[in-house]
From TrEMBL:
Keyword Transcription among UniProt keywords: no
One Gene Ontology molecular-function label: symporter activity
Protein name: Transporter
Keywords: Membrane, Symport, Transmembrane, Transmembrane helix, Transport
Matches recorded under NCBIfam families: Na_transp (NF037979)
Amino acid sequence: MTASSIAPARPHWSSRLMFVFAASGSAVGLGNIWKFPYIVGENGGGAFVLLYLACLIGLGAPLLIGEVFVGRKGGEFPASAFLRVAREKAMSRLWGGLGALGAIIALMILAFYSVVSGWVGIYTVDFAQAVLGGDAARSGADAFSAMLADPTLQLSAVTAIVVTAGLVIYYDVTGGIQSVMRYVAPLFVVLLVAMLVMVAATTGKLGEAFTYMFQPDFSALSVDAFGEALGHAFFTLSVGMCGMLIYGAYLDDEANIPRLGISVALLDTAIAIAAALIIFPIVFAFNLESNGGPGLLFIALPQGFTLLPNGDLFGLGFFTATLLAAFSSLIALMIIARHWLEETLNVSGSSATLMAAGATWIGGAAVTLSMTVWDSISILGLSLFDFLDQATSSWLLPISGLGMAIFVSRAIVPDMPEGPVKIYLRAGLTYIAPLGIVVLIWSKAVGF
Ligand code: PHE
């Protein structure tokens, strides 16, 4: 045990770069590639991007840094980490509840994340078959609906992806992630950059996409857009769910957490923007719907790929990159569930991994069935999929984010050395985050 750590000894990342790989692997996921482009499309482009960047800088990045600090200080078990730090600071034991809340949110997200990851897997295999000279790849609304109506296909995809993720984390969290991310991270970046260059060259629409993304039209914004930008800033950086706390626990005591945290936030943002700059030129080149919602990635984009020369290859490259991103985020989400189950049920790491994988599979199966066999069931007028997505992004994440902001601003920030980092974190966590989140929750509950 060292001076700044009050938790028992634990494994460490082999290098700080590994932390950046692992934390970016958690952050960069379906949120960047699937969700960000379609919510930009639904909210009219540039003004929303600005709002989102403001939420990232004002609240998201400070919370990410704060979570990593709690993890390094309190250890890798979410509830115990908050409890330990709270005890040291003579704060209430109730703060331990933030760990449980984070894990419950992660389990809810896992239920639909595993399903969408499965879709990505299905499209990847399809494009691979098309490249190898098999049938044409899935494309268009009908093919997407046909996949949604096929529970067996979706369940097989969910099973494959959950079992593989479970195997990676079965024995040793840091070891498993490190050996996977060592290959996944560089491969992902190479694929993404290659796609960006090739799409820009073949469609000639990069400039148009740029204007769409960065020229704000504030008339397209609504209060709902603020909620969406804020919720997504949390979701994309994996904050409010203790994911960053766990990865922070494996950092050495000398690591410069603010610098590492900012690197992860910058990488995550750059990749979301790159994904949008791959998707929108295709959308514009073929006059596809830019506001197509969740179907953008699975309906509009494959349609565009079929119209491009060597489109199957583009499709394969793009969906492989998306699958890698989804997979490393799924691992991160399952690790949250695993650690929390391990500490709460007092079971071994491997039993907890099995339970986390089992819970993910059951959640994924329920979401799949709710779209097919049980499609008459709704919760508060929403499908199970939409309920889980909206309940986590619009409500639970802002609430846990608010709790974490208050906790970190009282338990961690006062001990930091004076300087710009402390000023930044204090501004974000003590003022901007609580104010922004309270306004958001108020607007949702009461309406404006
Ligand atoms: N940040 C991931 C994404 O954008 C989702 C995620 C949330 C992953 C929480 C891990 C923990 O897709």
